[in-house]
Amino acid sequence: MALANKKLYTITALIVILAIALATVAWLVLTYNSLVRENEKVDSQWAQVQNQYQRKIDLIPTLVSTVGAYQQFEASTLTNITQLRTQWMNATTTEDQVNVTNQLDSQLATIIVTYENYPELQSITAVRDLIYELTGTENRISVERMRYNEYVQDFNAHIKSFPASFVAGWGDFEEREYYQSPNAPPPP
Amino acid sequence: MNMRALAAPALVLLALVLSQGTASAEYPTLVYYVTDQVGVLTSSEEFDIQSVCVEVYEQTGAEIAVLVVNTTLPDGIDMFAVKTFEQNGLGQEGEDDGLLILVSVEENAWRIEVGYGLEGILPDSKVGDIVTANLVPYLAVSDYYSGLYYTTYAVGLEIVTNYSGTPHTSESQYPIPWIPLKTWQLAVVIGAIVVLGVLTKGRAFLLWMLFSRNWGGGGKNWGGGRSGGGGARGRW
Lengths: 188, 236
What we know:
The complex is a heterodimer of chains A (188) and B (236). With 188 residues, chain A is mainly α. Helix content of chain A is 81%, strand content 0%. Chain A has helices spanning 2-67, 75-90, 94-117, 119-122, 125-160, 164-170. In chain A, helix 2 (75-90) packs antiparallel against helix 3. Chain B is α/β, with parallel strands linked by helices and 236 residues long. Chain B is 48% helix and 14% strand. Chain B has helices at 3-22, 43-60, 77-88, 124-134, 136-139, 144-162, 183-199, 203-215, and strands spanning 34-36, 63-69, 98-104, 109-115, 227-235. Chain B has a 5-stranded mixed sheet, with helices on both faces. In chain B, strand 2 (63-69), helix 3 (77-88) and strand 3 (98-104) form a beta-alpha-beta unit. Chain B is elongated. Mean pLDDT of chain B is 82; it is low at 19-24 and 213-217. The A-B interface holds A 48, 125, 128-133, 135-137, 139-144, 146 and B 78-79, 82, 123-125, 127-129, 132, 227-233.
């Protein structure tokens, strides 16, 4: 009788251990996959940010030719903008691109300030449309950038949280960098 | 004390805590096409604007929402619009054909947030032109109704003319348009409700009341679309 009981215990214990092992493996696979997914989300969101940058760069030739016809806009600003566009196209690293767009932003801000200061410019459809496109692009960039930072935050929180941090360490997942715009406060 | 007696209240409490944690009450929930938090529109004016939105929705599936708020601070109107759009999910999922017309009264500011799917037919400059002609002149004289009506109409016309989408006609095959059941299915359901009611001596209706609270009087189910900051903004 005692022998039969012992056998039963052993079988039960084996089943329990097997179940735990299976559950652990399943958890590892699921966690790993979700980390891969989140990491890819960050990448594709960064591509989205770059698309919007490209959109802004593409707007520059029209900007320069439209706005150049009005003396209210300073010629030097327009020259700077054209030069920065060339710099962007030659930029190879992400860091360079970010650098150029930051400079570009301050030049473009001058254009918008000029536009706002001269009501007669606001009644010219071509100029007005262009400013709408410009501010719209600016806004798209900040939206996509915000989403990028949100995804980075999710991912970073996930790889640092226990017990997912084990999987992150073993799978070589590293913290992703936030995108910080020059005039935004640093993340907390 | 019986553990089971404790379990039910504990579960309810847990559910409450969880729902509090996930609910983001920061941005307005758009119950129907027009949401006026300030009270600048009468209900018949709201109805007029809504009928334009309904027409656009039925013909193309695109969802236009109008929102009037006191202020969008501390976010500012751009972020506020994106977040409100995202939280409510205007436009069909995958089509992203939603559009939000937002007016902030205290800030004298407006913003049109265009879903990804409508950016092609409503580029920023076109949106800007529509608003310059249809919204700003009326807001300047505090005629919110005319401004919002003409703007909704103008963007609606643009959508109906240039965007095909997926029509959602109300002339449906169902006897009660907002319940997707054919006549015989409806009869079965009503029959089941009656039988259930009789069998449980009316207690089944208590359960129904519990569930119906979530429906909150039949609002609009937005499609789950997204936007990415396209559109235009300005002041008056």
